[in-house]
Amino acid sequence: MGQYVVRRLLIAIPTLLITSLVIFAILALAPGDPLAQFALNPAVPEEVRERIREQLGLNQPWPVRYVKWLQQVSQGNFGISFNTKAPVLDLIGQRLPQTLQVVGLAYLIAVLIAIPIGIISAVKQYSLFDQIATFFSFVGFSVPSFFTGLVLMLVFAINLGWFPIVYSSTLKVTDWDSFWQQIRQMVLPISVLVVQQTAALTRFMRSSMLDNLTLDYVRTAKAKGLTDRLVVMRHVVTNSLIPVVTLIALGIPTIFAGAIITENLYRVNGLGQLLITSINNSDTPVVMALTFIFAILTVIFNLIADVLYGVLDPRVRYS
Amino acid sequence: MSEATPTLDTPLSSAGVERLQQLSSTLAVKPRTLLGDAWRRFRKHRLAMLGVALLAFLTLTVTIGAPLYIDRFARISAEEGAPLLQQNPTLRDATDHLNFIAILAPPSANHPFGTDDLGRDLFVRALYGGRISLAVGFTAMLIAITLGSVVGAVSGFFGGTVDQILMRITDLFLSLPGIPLILLTVYLFRDPVIKAMGSPEAGIFVIVVTVIGGLAWMQTARVVRASFLSLKQKEFVEAATALGVSRASIMFRHILPNAMSPIIVAATLEIGTAIITESTLSFLGVGFPADTPTWGRLVTDGSQYLQGAPWLALIPGFLIFITVLSINFVGDGLRDALDPRSRL
Amino acid sequence: MNHKRLWSWLPVFAALALLLAACGGAPPAQAPQATEAPAAQATEAPAPTAAPAATEAPAATEAPAPTAAPAATEAPAAAEPGGKLTILYWQAITILNPHLASGTKDYDGATLILEPLARFSETDELVPYLATEIPTVENGGIAEDNTSITWKLVETNWSDGTPFTADDVVFTWQYCSTPETACTNASNLEPIETVEAVDPQTVRITWKEPNPNPYISFVGPLGMILQKAQFENCIGAAAISDAACQAANLAPIGTGPYKLTELRPGDTALYERNPEYRNADSVFFDEVEIKGGGDAASAARAVCETQEVDYAWNIQVPKAVLEPILASGNCDPVAGGSFGVERIVVNFSNPDPALGDQRSEPDQPHPFLTDPAVRQAINLAIDRQAIVDQLYGPTGYPTCNVLVVPAQVNSPNTTCDRNVEEANRLLDEAGYTLNGAVREKDGVRLVVDFQTSINTLRQGEQAIVKANLAEIGIQVNVKAIDAAVFFSGDPGNPDTLNKFYADLQMYTNGPDSTDSQAYLSSWQCSEVNSSANQWNGNNDGRYCNPEYDALFAEYAAEFDQARRAELAIQLNDILVNDVAIIPLVNRVTPQVKLKNLEGPTYSTFDSVLWNIQEWRRVP
Questions:
Q1: Choosing among A8, A127, A142, which should be mutated to test the B contact, i.e. which has the most B CBs within 10 A?
Q2: What per-residue confidence (pLDDT) applies to C75?
Q3: For residue C192, what are the β-bridge partners?
Q4: Residues C474-494: tens digit of each pLDDT
Q5: How many helices (H) and strands (E) does chain B have?
Q6: Together in a domain, A275 and A178
Q7: Is residue C525 within 8 Å of C546, Cβ to Cβ?
Q8: Stretch (H or E) spanning A283
Q9: CB contact under 8 A, B285 and C478
Q10: How far apart are CA C145 and CA C161, in angstroms?
């Protein structure tokens, strides 16, 4: 197993190199221009735009820029943002706390809620609980998050006035008051994300449980006189978690990609908002850094998921 | 284990099999086949049949039903003082028809789904949009699910180098930045595809479903692979292998049906996502023309008016919801039907 | 069994508990809002100071001047100074060095800290900031021969306590006139031959040649003065590569009413009172926060409905969205001047894809849009009033002119009333006959591609124009393009407004200075976009009219301001009467403010925050 992990990590290096090349090429070739903001501005004529392009190094062909980028990154430097003219890593560092607080916490809550709901839904298939859970999870994933977000905003912030709609990222938690303020401003964005993520996870957990509940070993275990609850908890849940663990593990990197729509709606201004504004402004160094970090996390968490299969199901062999 | 069972339980020689077939052919009763059984079980699944009925109803309404509504719509518009220009209006003409006399009208007999801020009839628009949204949703879902299942199955079953290569490609796809990738793909392939398909509508449809499906298979692949990793170690697979069943057959006839559950869930999820993603594509200006009222687009545009005219977003949202729910019912039914141990 | 049931409902209980906790906690947090509520009752005191000239200003139609009188009022019962002013921008500040900035939000963010020599007021008049007075020919500040301008500077300190001098102005010129610094405002400094410090309080700018627009440099949002001491080592490539300069770009030292406490680029800027400011005592607020991100509609909601913030910038959303928000009665819209004119540009070249790489080249005339009758018919068929009534509401006025600001160049000669019969008559006369629902002539069908950027309002306009033109037998196929692509000017992309691979296209534009020359220059033949200039001319419609060029040459050579205004109007009239362009709406970017905030106004040629030092809370 140790050998397996080491080998996988070694494979990861060329994978990431290829990934970074592909991403860089996509960003370089995709339509859009960091100077688009000046397009209609007669005060910024073509000569000036050309100078800015030169200053940002955009006058070179993209393979050259890629090699330069790679050199910088190998020294831990992700370059400077076209828009703020400041180091990309500083920007990411500023956004990370909000994203972890809101998106990360939402994910944690979603997983903690979804697994028990999925289990109960399956054990009591077609019961009232199952029907209600089914209904809500379908609302969760047939309704886009901008819609849920707006409904929650209108009901809880505007009509009831319980929560603010502008998230303050500069709020410093120093006492109970400011702590409470922090909680209040996190409730709505977290709720939107939880509704969305719980929905999908519940369905996967439920279906995985249903598969296992009918298997022979369950009957055997019950025949041996184990209680229903013990069988479900010890055996069925463990086995049902295998596909779900993949999803949970794959979901963790997406926390770092942020939640574009929800962050934007409530002005959480975390990594998701940084990514989307950078994409819209063709701020390539920022987009490149964010997607590359995301790629690294994806590789790592896939590996973790693969290792976890082995823990959950000893028959899975690493080849 | 389901389909493996008959193979194991048949200790008959080939001659024996022939005799058995002769015997059964002399009987008037049709032999019970696996698919026949499944179909019988499926029909008994009440929710599944409800799902089928709902889907059929939606599909028929937007295809056959829609043209029948135009005459009524033309009459109502004329009565309201905003007649249509065209002599023989098409459904498309009706969706573009502005009626400043009935702006933001709530649902009523004249306008069953209400109207938007330019007085366009939401019912007509939902009928027209439904054709596109349903077609895009199903096709993109099929593409994503097929691609994901094949990649996951091959990867999980063969393991080793094949697995490594396929999974690293999956990782690559997972890490690609969606929006620039979509913009680039459409920018590169729009004109050739439209040329190849002969008409802009068909060309855009192909691009839209390919882009949506092509960027949504990774989760399915990972989940199917995980199921395969665990299923391929099971006894029935060893048995089938020992009996010399071909690898393709083991993969797709024996293991895949046992991995159906996550695939079905993924399919249900994907169809809703595809309908919504389609509207995202038109927001990037790379989908259907901006004035095509697809369901996703109606929800997106309508959600701005949630405060004053909630029906504009709620109704198309409900239509998507019904579609997704129906698919799920059908999926649940399919899973139960394909499972021989199911009590139904 | 009981056990199990309880356990199964646990998540539901948990959710309920959360909800209850959330409700229970709400009242105390709401308290401050409640205390603020009475303030909303304060009705706009009838302003005794004359409401500005705005009433006679922008639009062709009589637009009710939508704002209260600007600042400068001695409010009867002033609130206690201090507290925090919260401002929402749906775009976020990314950099505070305005010379390297990329958009309005950055200039506006810098406006609190940095100052130019003079700014433009809501009536488009110059107000001295770092200057003691506005130089004119009369007061001797501008040379008779228009070759130089001399500014007298105020005595004031930078926020670090060091004195502001003429050297700082000279330095700012040096900084930006170095091409490698890549200042975005370089073209405003381009006419300058040299800038000299006559004495610490006097600076003289000498032009390369006589300059009809002497206020082009160091005035307005593009003219803010940097501190020499802070940016001395940042000239050229170091401007963005040097770590100290990167830090300086995000936190410039200024002479303005506020200084920066914290900037999170792309998110929030926090400011505090600048004690060194020359009128520090008159500044009302202790702190200012500019929060970015989100969308325009929710920004308006945060002011008008939840009252979390005091002011929101540019809430351009469809009328049907905006009106219920404004109806809450807690806020006032602030709008006026011009954000630009929303227009439809006519393509005089043929964009037919069958032409291959000859597409939209100027030597390929358009098959029917070169016919004045067709252009005039389109112009007559479009229902500008409906566009405004249904979509823009209080955020725009119908206009027939491409040049609407300053008020003295807004042509009174043009009309553009809707007349479908006349449009149909013109087309009949020109020989276009109906074949089914679409007119045609000699096998050429009147089918047009109409492109614009993606934006709810614009798609609404497209729908109206499509319906309008259907009435005169012209079929419209609409196309909407991602704004990042449409405005990119990328010569490799077919969907840019510069290439204009469509028959009609729509966007907003307007002059960036009170002097209209740069704006009007873009309809000259020499500016026509083609592959030869990488599609980077300024004439995307490829309109070419020798009469216009001749008149423009006369205008460019004229120094008398009154005569210049007359010529500018004539140039506008040529474009409008020849239907080179179809102006639709004069957009007035609306901002909203809480009723208890006084001071916000608008400015066509400057930041909307130009007078932020005068903003105050009223009871």
A1: A142
A2: 44
A3: C207
A4: 999 999 888 878 887 777 788
A5: 16, 0
A6: yes
A7: yes
A8: none
A9: no
A10: 39
Could you list the pLDDT tens digit for every one of the 319 residues in chain A? 678 888 888 888 888 899 899 989 988 888 777 777 676 666 677 777 788 888 888 888 889 999 999 998 888 888 889 888 889 999 999 989 888 889 999 999 999 999 999 988 888 888 899 889 888 888 887 777 888 888 899 899 988 889 998 998 888 888 899 999 999 999 999 999 998 888 888 988 888 888 888 777 777 877 877 777 777 777 788 888 877 887 788 788 888 777 888 888 899 988 988 988 888 888 889 989 998 988 888 888 888 888 887 777 777 666 5
Query: Is A317 within the bounds of a domain?
Result: no
Q: Is C386 on the interface with B (CB under 8 A)?
A: yes
Interface pTM, i.e. ipTM: 0.85
Tell me if B173 sits within 8 A of B303, measured CB to CB: no
pLDDT of residue B67: 82
pLDDT recorded at residue C46 = 33
Preceding omega of C406 cis (within 30 degrees of 0): yes
Query: How many domains does one find in chain A?
Result: 2
Collect all residues of chain B within an 8 Å Cβ-Cβ radius of residue A31.
183-184, 187
Give the predicted TM-score (pTM) of the model.
0.82
Q: How many contiguous H segments (helices) and E segments (strands) does chain C have?
A: 18, 23
Residue B316 near residue B127, CB atoms below 8 Å = no
Domain CATH number, residue A176: 1.10.3720.10
CA atoms within 13 Å, Cβ hemisphere of B249: 10
Query: Which residue in C291, C278, C337, C306 sits closest to C122, CA to CA?
Result: C337
CB contact under 8 A, B289 and C478: yes
Reported confidence tier of residue B18, pLDDT bands at 50, 70, 90:
low
DSSP bridge partners of C592: C312, C333
Q: What is the span of the domain harbouring residue A70? A: 18-74
Q: Which of B159, B184, B342 sits opposite A29 (nearest CB)?
A: B184
pLDDT higher than threshold 60 for residue B7: no
**C472 — pLDDT class (breaks 50, 70, 90):** very high
CB B145 within 8 A of CB B220: yes
- Examine residue A279 and state whether it is found in any structural domain, yes or no: yes
Given a contact as 3+ CB pairs under 8 Å, which chains touch C? A, B
Q: Looking at the structure, do residues A67 and A132 belong to the same domain, yes or no?
A: no
pLDDT computed for residue A47 by the predictor: 78
Instruction: Say whether both A151 and A235 belong to one domain.
Output: yes
Taking contacts as CB-CB distances below 8 angstroms, the residues of chain A near C326 are none
Here the tokens at position C363 are 């030597």
Question: Are residues A288 and A161 both part of a single domain?
Answer: yes
Q: What does the pLDDT read at residue B20?
A: 52
Q: Are the CB atoms for B325 and A142 separated by under 8 Å?
A: yes
The verdict on B4 touching A (C-beta cutoff 8 Å) is no
